[in-house]
Amino acid sequence: MAGKIDEVDCEIILQMIDNARKPFTEIAKEMLVSTGTVHQRVRKLEKSGVISGYSLSVDYTKFGYTLTVYVGVFVQTGYSAIKVIDRLHTIPEVTVADLAAGTYSIFCKLRCRDTLHAKDVLMDMQSLEGVKGTETMIMLEERLNDNKRLLRSIVNNMKTKI
Fold first, then answer.
1. For domain 60-139, is the CATH number 3.90.79.10?
2. pLDDT in tens, 64-100
3. What's the topology of domain 2-54?
4. How confident is the model at residue 2 (pLDDT cuts 50, 70, 90)?
Protein backbone atom coordinates (compact mmCIF):
# COMPACT_ATOMS: atom_id res chain seq x y z
CA MET A 1 0.00 0.00 0.00
CA ALA A 2 2.90 2.36 0.69
CA GLY A 3 3.48 2.76 -3.05
CA LYS A 4 -0.10 3.96 -3.54
CA ILE A 5 0.07 6.70 -0.91
CA ASP A 6 0.88 10.05 -2.42
CA GLU A 7 1.86 13.41 -0.96
CA VAL A 8 -1.78 14.49 -0.52
CA ASP A 9 -2.53 11.32 1.46
CA CYS A 10 0.57 11.90 3.60
CA GLU A 11 -0.44 15.47 4.34
CA ILE A 12 -3.97 14.40 5.30
CA ILE A 13 -2.55 11.80 7.70
CA LEU A 14 -0.20 14.38 9.19
CA GLN A 15 -3.17 16.74 9.69
CA MET A 16 -5.13 13.99 11.47
CA ILE A 17 -2.36 12.71 13.77
CA ASP A 18 -2.99 15.18 16.58
CA ASN A 19 -6.74 15.42 16.08
CA ALA A 20 -8.49 12.65 14.18
CA ARG A 21 -11.76 14.58 14.62
CA LYS A 22 -10.47 17.63 12.79
CA PRO A 23 -13.17 18.63 10.28
CA PHE A 24 -12.42 17.80 6.66
CA THR A 25 -13.24 21.43 5.82
CA GLU A 26 -10.38 22.64 8.05
CA ILE A 27 -7.96 20.11 6.59
CA ALA A 28 -8.97 21.09 3.07
CA LYS A 29 -8.56 24.79 3.83
CA GLU A 30 -5.07 24.28 5.27
CA MET A 31 -4.05 22.07 2.34
CA LEU A 32 -5.68 24.28 -0.31
CA VAL A 33 -7.73 21.38 -1.73
CA SER A 34 -11.45 20.72 -1.83
CA THR A 35 -13.33 19.17 1.07
CA GLY A 36 -14.44 16.45 -1.35
CA THR A 37 -10.82 15.57 -2.06
CA VAL A 38 -10.08 15.16 1.65
CA HIS A 39 -13.25 13.12 2.18
CA GLN A 40 -12.49 10.87 -0.79
CA ARG A 41 -8.85 10.37 0.23
CA VAL A 42 -9.73 9.52 3.85
CA ARG A 43 -12.31 6.97 2.65
CA LYS A 44 -9.66 5.45 0.34
CA LEU A 45 -7.19 5.25 3.24
CA GLU A 46 -9.85 3.61 5.42
CA LYS A 47 -10.85 1.12 2.71
CA SER A 48 -7.23 0.12 2.10
CA GLY A 49 -6.65 -0.37 5.84
CA VAL A 50 -4.05 2.40 6.19
CA ILE A 51 -6.48 4.11 8.56
CA SER A 52 -7.94 1.27 10.60
CA GLY A 53 -10.12 3.26 12.95
CA TYR A 54 -10.35 6.14 15.36
CA SER A 55 -9.92 5.90 19.09
CA LEU A 56 -10.58 7.78 22.26
CA SER A 57 -7.65 8.52 24.57
CA VAL A 58 -8.51 8.91 28.23
CA ASP A 59 -6.59 9.54 31.42
CA TYR A 60 -7.45 6.47 33.50
CA THR A 61 -6.34 8.25 36.68
CA LYS A 62 -9.36 10.57 36.30
CA PHE A 63 -11.51 7.45 36.75
CA GLY A 64 -9.57 6.29 39.81
CA TYR A 65 -7.44 3.74 37.94
CA THR A 66 -4.09 5.03 39.16
CA LEU A 67 -2.03 1.84 38.88
CA THR A 68 -0.53 0.43 35.69
CA VAL A 69 0.72 -3.14 35.87
CA TYR A 70 2.60 -5.12 33.24
CA VAL A 71 2.23 -8.89 33.47
CA GLY A 72 4.20 -11.60 31.73
CA VAL A 73 2.07 -14.72 31.35
CA PHE A 74 3.49 -18.23 31.25
CA VAL A 75 1.24 -20.64 29.33
CA GLN A 76 1.00 -24.29 30.34
CA THR A 77 2.57 -26.79 27.97
CA GLY A 78 0.00 -28.08 25.52
CA TYR A 79 -2.16 -24.96 25.71
CA SER A 80 -2.54 -22.35 23.01
CA ALA A 81 -1.41 -18.85 23.96
CA ILE A 82 -3.97 -17.48 21.50
CA LYS A 83 -6.75 -19.29 23.36
CA VAL A 84 -5.45 -17.88 26.64
CA ILE A 85 -5.56 -14.38 25.12
CA ASP A 86 -9.17 -15.07 24.12
CA ARG A 87 -9.88 -15.90 27.77
CA LEU A 88 -8.14 -12.70 28.89
CA HIS A 89 -10.87 -10.79 27.05
CA THR A 90 -13.16 -11.66 29.97
CA ILE A 91 -11.06 -9.46 32.29
CA PRO A 92 -11.77 -5.80 31.45
CA GLU A 93 -8.71 -4.50 33.33
CA VAL A 94 -6.48 -6.28 30.77
CA THR A 95 -6.20 -3.43 28.26
CA VAL A 96 -3.42 -4.96 26.13
CA ALA A 97 -2.46 -8.60 25.55
CA ASP A 98 0.38 -9.28 23.14
CA LEU A 99 1.50 -12.68 21.89
CA ALA A 100 5.17 -12.72 22.80
CA ALA A 101 8.39 -14.59 22.09
CA GLY A 102 10.99 -14.94 24.79
CA THR A 103 10.49 -15.39 28.50
CA TYR A 104 6.70 -15.05 28.36
CA SER A 105 4.11 -16.39 25.97
CA ILE A 106 1.87 -13.36 26.54
CA PHE A 107 2.63 -9.86 27.78
CA CYS A 108 -0.24 -7.79 29.20
CA LYS A 109 -0.95 -4.28 30.38
CA LEU A 110 -3.46 -3.85 33.20
CA ARG A 111 -5.19 -0.75 34.51
CA CYS A 112 -6.15 -1.04 38.19
CA ARG A 113 -7.40 1.21 40.99
CA ASP A 114 -4.74 0.15 43.51
CA THR A 115 -2.61 -2.80 44.59
CA LEU A 116 -5.54 -4.68 46.14
CA HIS A 117 -7.47 -4.38 42.90
CA ALA A 118 -4.37 -5.52 40.98
CA LYS A 119 -4.09 -8.56 43.27
CA ASP A 120 -7.69 -9.52 42.46
CA VAL A 121 -7.12 -9.10 38.72
CA LEU A 122 -3.92 -11.16 38.89
CA MET A 123 -5.76 -13.91 40.75
CA ASP A 124 -8.41 -13.89 38.01
CA MET A 125 -5.70 -14.13 35.37
CA GLN A 126 -3.91 -16.98 37.15
CA SER A 127 -7.15 -18.94 37.43
CA LEU A 128 -7.69 -18.98 33.67
CA GLU A 129 -7.37 -22.34 31.98
CA GLY A 130 -3.96 -22.65 30.36
CA VAL A 131 -2.18 -20.10 32.56
CA LYS A 132 0.84 -21.63 34.30
CA GLY A 133 1.86 -18.48 36.12
CA THR A 134 2.54 -14.76 35.86
CA GLU A 135 5.30 -12.29 36.58
CA THR A 136 4.29 -8.77 37.55
CA MET A 137 5.85 -5.34 37.21
CA ILE A 138 4.21 -2.29 38.78
CA MET A 139 4.77 1.00 37.00
CA LEU A 140 5.59 3.97 39.18
CA GLU A 141 4.94 6.69 36.62
CA GLU A 142 4.34 6.81 32.87
CA ARG A 143 6.81 9.28 31.41
CA LEU A 144 6.48 8.58 27.70
CA ASN A 145 3.48 7.29 25.79
CA ASP A 146 3.55 8.72 22.29
CA ASN A 147 3.07 6.80 19.07
CA LYS A 148 2.37 10.06 17.21
CA ARG A 149 6.09 10.86 16.88
CA LEU A 150 6.74 7.53 15.13
CA LEU A 151 3.78 7.92 12.78
CA ARG A 152 4.77 11.51 11.98
CA SER A 153 8.34 10.32 11.23
CA ILE A 154 7.14 7.47 8.99
CA VAL A 155 4.79 9.70 6.99
CA ASN A 156 7.36 12.48 6.65
CA ASN A 157 9.92 9.94 5.38
CA MET A 158 7.36 8.66 2.87
CA LYS A 159 6.76 12.23 1.65
CA THR A 160 10.47 12.70 0.91
CA LYS A 161 10.48 9.56 -1.24
CA ILE A 162 7.45 10.53 -3.33
1. no
2. 999 999 999 999 999 999 999 999 999 999 999 999 9
3. Arc Repressor Mutant, subunit A (1.10.10)
4. very low
Residue extents of the structural domains in the chain: 2-54, 60-139
Secondary structure (DSSP) of the chain: -GGG--HHHHHHHHHHHS-TT--HHHHHHHHTS-HHHHHHHHHHHHHTTSS--------GGGGT--EEEEEEEEEPTTS-HHHHHHHHTT-TTEEEEEE--SS-SEEEEEEESSHHHHHHHHHHHHTSTTEEEEEEEEES------SHHHHHHHHHHHHHH-
Q: What's this model's pTM, rounded to 2 decimal places?
A: 0.83
